[in-house]
């Protein structure tokens, strides 16, 4: 057995097969049942000509079919490719082509987009539709694909910790990029293979560790599985022998009802985009969440006001902010009192996480020098089909390969990392640097603001000016009210000079801001 996700899952299925592995709505499968489910699809993919190293797209809402497809691909040493289900035809065409996918498993709700796009991708030769009949020519129904296929593993190739796992991440300013991992590094980077102690030294220890959780913990991944954080939360939970719970789509009422029904112990969310509607629903509904112990936010940071509101509604629950990325894995935890408004501070979980200055030298703790957060060791190794970005993001310095995360930070004397924001989003206005995250957090502290995204737009005098796109609760606040609110908490140069009000904020399914869109909206409002 290797540190390979398919190998590790199969060991759980063989020894803990009776335990429930996954729940989504009325669908509930044990580890053994899910293993058989994935095996049948894996055999079908082999018959369809999918070979080791080739890419299988997954364009699905959350469900057992999603995670079964991921496992099926890994079992035959193929590579699952997560597809953002919100993408329109042009974006899908880019992703299908960029990823070189040869097969695609998709929800029939996306029939029209797949029908228009797939014919323009010659490499994409096999389509499987989930959820009912498909109008896409040549598509095979899921039930027909797995019907009659063996439930065992005969004929699967031997795997390795060197096998590749790709997570496509949408980012906030450009087209998606495929983050490439060795499965062993991926296993170690997300939770170190053991979130409650030292990393496992042998793959067999994963099963031994999972057996100690009896009865198993019930964990929920509330984010969409097309986001890497939800996939990794699933695997980390399984390495503890846990039951993983999903909802098909994110709906606050459905999520809370599911937490209550399935007695969820811990739930993973993605920042304010999920925390705000959950808090709204908690305030208006009636739920028995006595069994919920932990809410963990990954992929986006909770603002202080949102976190405080959620904590007030759930005083018995521990709320955690975790720092990491698709390229770095889980790297640090927020310190007490950390927030975008008061200052983001994280305690690294590894000595391999540090800050490098402009010359790619390690910043001396307490020096006050700003640099980029960087990690070495267990990190992704490349971007698929993008050698230029790979070279810029993963530089080799004195024989050590680093990941430059793009987060601008300093290091305090005790090793705590204080993060100011994303360097790529930093607004230079009259020579002063403004990090959008700080301004967004202050705006969200206004009682009439539901959501806010801050960007820079051209200004004849200052080069760029700070602009804010606002989604409000009901009636929008006036510009004067927002200006007064901000000036009490921010330096004058950080206060937005332009406001645009929208009925609904555009964010990714994972809750990340769409800064390209926000910039267009703000510029149109000038």
Give a brief rundown of this model:
By secondary structure, this protein is an alpha/beta fold.
Index terms:
Rossmann fold, 526 residues, alpha/beta, GMP Synthetase, Chain A, domain 3, 14-stranded mixed β-sheet
Distance between the termini: 60 Å
Q: CATH superfamily of one domain, called what?
A: ANL, N-terminal domain
User: Do you know the CATH topology of one domain?
Assistant: Rossmann fold
Largest sheet: 14 strands, mixed
Shape: globular
The assigned structural class equals: alpha/beta
Number of helices: 16
Number of strands: 27
**How large is the share of residues in beta strands?**
25-35%
CATH architecture of one domain: 3-Layer(aba) Sandwich
What is the helical fraction, as a range of percent? Answer: 25-40%
pLDDT averaged over residues: 92
Low-pLDDT parts are none
CATH top level class name of one domain: Alpha Beta
The gyration radius over C-alpha positions equals: 23 Å
């Amino acid at each position: 057995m290797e540190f390979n996700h398919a190998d590790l899952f199969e060991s759980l299925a063989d020894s803990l097969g009776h335990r429930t592995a996954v729940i989504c709505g009325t669908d509930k499968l044990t580890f053994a049942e899910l293993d058989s489910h994935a095996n049948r699809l894996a055999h079908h993919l082999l018959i369809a000509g999918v070979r080791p190293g080739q890419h299988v797209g997954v364009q699905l809402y959350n469900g057992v079919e999603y995670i079964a497809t991921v496992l099926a691909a890994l079992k035959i040493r193929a590579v699952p490719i997560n597809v953002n289900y919100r993408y329109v035809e042009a974006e899908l065409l880019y992703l299908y082509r960029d990823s070189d996918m040869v097969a695609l498993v998709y929800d029939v709700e996306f029939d029209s987009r797949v029908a228009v796009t797939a014919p323009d991708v010659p490499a994409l030769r096999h389509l499987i539709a989930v959820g009912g009949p498909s109008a896409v020519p040549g598509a095979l129904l899921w039930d027909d694909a797995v019907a009659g296929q063996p439930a065992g593993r005969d004929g699967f190739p031997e795997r390795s910790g060197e096998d590749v796992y790709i997570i496509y991440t949408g980012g906030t300013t450009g087209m998606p990029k495929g983050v490439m991992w060795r499965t062993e590094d991926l296993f170690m980077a997300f939770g170190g293979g053991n979130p409650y102690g030292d990393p496992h030294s042998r793959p067999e220890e994963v099963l031994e560790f999972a057996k100690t959780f009896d009865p198993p913990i019930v964990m929920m991944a509330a984010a969409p599985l097309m986001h890497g954080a939800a996939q990794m939360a699933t695997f980390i939970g399984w390495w503890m022998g846990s039951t993983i719970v999903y909802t098909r789509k994110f709906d606050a009422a459905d999520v809370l009802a599911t937490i209550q029904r399935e007695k969820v112990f811990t739930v993973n969310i993605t920042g304010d985009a999920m925390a705000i509607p959950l808090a709204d629903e908690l305030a208006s509904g009636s739920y028995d969440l006595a069994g919920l112990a932990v809410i963990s936010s990954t992929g986006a940071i909770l603002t202080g006001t949102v976190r405080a509101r959620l904590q007030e509604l759930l005083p018995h629950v521990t709320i955690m902010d975790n720092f990491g990325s698709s390229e770095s894995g889980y790297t640090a935890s927020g310190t007490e009192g950390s927030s975008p408004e008061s200052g983001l501070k994280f305690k690294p979980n590894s000595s391999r996480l540090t800050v490098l200055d402009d010359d790619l030298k390690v910043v001396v703790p307490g020096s006050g020098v700003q640099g980029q957060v960087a990690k070495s060791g267990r990190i992704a190794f490349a971007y698929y089909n993008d050698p230029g970005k790979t070279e810029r993001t993963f530089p080799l310095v004195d024989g050590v390969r680093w990941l430059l995360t793009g987060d601008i930070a300093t290091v305090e004397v005790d090793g705590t990392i204080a993060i100011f924001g994303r360097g790529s989003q930093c607004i230079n206005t009259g020579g002063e640097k403004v990090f959008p995250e700080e301004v967004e957090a202050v705006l969200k502290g206004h009682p009439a603001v539901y959501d806010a995204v801050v960007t820079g737009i051209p200004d004849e005098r200052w080069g760029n000016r700070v602009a804010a796109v606002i989604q409000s609760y009901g009636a929008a606040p006036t510009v004067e009210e927002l200006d007064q609110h901000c000036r009490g908490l921010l330096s004058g140069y950080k206060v937005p000079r332009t406001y645009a009000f929208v009925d609904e904020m555009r964010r990714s399914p994972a809750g990340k801001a769409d800064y390209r869109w926000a910039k267009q909206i703000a510029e149109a409002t000038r």
